[in-house]
Specification:
about 325 residues, TIM Barrel, Immunoglobulin-like, 2 domains, 4-stranded antiparallel β-sheet, 9 helices, 18 strands, about 35% helix, about 25% strand, binds zinc ion
Length: about 325
């Protein structure tokens, strides 16, 4: 091939690559602007995180534009903290599924409390936030367990549709069962099976075909609803969005960072609950109200991400954050 021809071939290859990129970008946009007029359903995956499955599960959900609730077993969360963070980073919600997956109604109320509490702590240590949702192993519950859940502020979530993936269901059968999901309903699946992961692209296609979207499970109602973001908050009128991400943690304090999008001229209000106290900030100019609980953060010329350290005093919950355009 002559040099000139080779150059032409190179341009053609680049053009072809360009067309591919354009196609992928528009597919992504179409997914972001999904039509959810058919309502929301809750996809749930129990028993993780699982070193041999979770990463694959998360990647498959993400590439199909789906978000789901992961009911993690506490001891798995304790042993695989990076995977719990990966669940949150992938846009999933994390729920409590007990510490050792026992038959809870056969236990004393103090054993129940320990199972649920240890799991709250393991997940909070991994992600900075304690779960609000609880699914009892095997769906087994009773009035004692319900009162322990109430004590910890947890909402009990069972399911409307059982995929039967735990019982040897084929990918076809899992897809078939998911196709019966109606607005507000929740399906049981597990973070464990190749059949379950293989079902995801077809579940996504079925939901899209019915204008149904994968939503979050509301702690208030226990039903699937539109995601509220959990982290991002957009005030009425829009303008900017502030998204919190977890940072480093120590026994007495933890770091959080906030990324603002939508404007470069922002005012972000961060409200902590005592005994929490913000003891350091970076990449922002901060002022405080009289109580010391409300911090107002403004850009200091270093971009749209800033951070702070919270001395938690036993409260690991994230502060509330809101954003407005200056
Ligand atoms: Zn389970």
């Amino acid at each position: 091939m002559s040099t000139a021809l080779r150059a032409v071939a190179g341009v053609v290859t680049l053009l072809a690559a360009g067309i591919l990129l354009t196609t992928q970008a528009s597919a992504g946009t179409a997914r972001a602007a999904a039509d959810c007029s058919g309502g929301y359903v809750g996809l749930t995956y129990d028993d993780g995180p699982n070193p041999s499955n979770t990463t694959n599960l998360l990647n498959t959900l993400k590439s199909n534009g789906l978000r789901a609730t992961m009911f993690d077993i506490g001891q798995n969360a304790r042993n695989n903290q990076a995977l719990v963070r990966a669940q949150v980073d992938a846009g999933m919600w994390v729920g409590n599924h007990s510490y050792t997956h026992p038959h809870l109604p056969q236990m004393s109320s103090s054993q129940m409390l320990s199972e649920l509490q240890q799991t709250q702590q393991a997940i909070q240590q991994a992600t900075g936030a304690a779960p609000k949702l609880f699914r009892p192993p095997y769906g087994e519950t009773d009035s004692t367990l319900k009162s322990v859940e109430r004590q910890l502020g947890l909402t009990e979530i069972i399911w409307d549709v059982d995929s039967q993936d735990w019982n040897g269901a084929s990918t076809d059968q899992i897809v078939q069962r998911a196709s019966s999901l109606q607005n507000g309903q929740i399906i049981l699946m597990h973070d464990q099976y190749a059949t379950t992961v293989a079902a995801i692209p077809r579940i996504a296609a079925n939901l899209r075909g019915r204008n149904v979207c994968a939503g979050m499970i509301s702690p208030a109602t226990g039903r699937a609803v539109a995601p509220d973001g959990g982290g991002p908050t957009t005030p009425p009128g829009g303008g900017c969005t502030a998204t919190i991400s977890p940072g480093q943690q120590w026994s007495d304090r933890f770091n959080l960072s906030v990324t603002v999008s939508g404007t470069g001229d922002w005012v972000v209000t961060v409200t902590v609950t005592p005994p929490q106290k913000i003891i350091a900030t970076w990449n922002t100019t901060a002022t405080w109200d009289g109580s010391g609980n409300v911090m107002t953060a403004r850009p200091n010329g270093g971009g749209n991400t800033f951070g702070f350290t919270i001395q938690h005093g036993g409260n690991w919950n994230w502060p509330s954050v809101s954003c407005r355009v200056a």
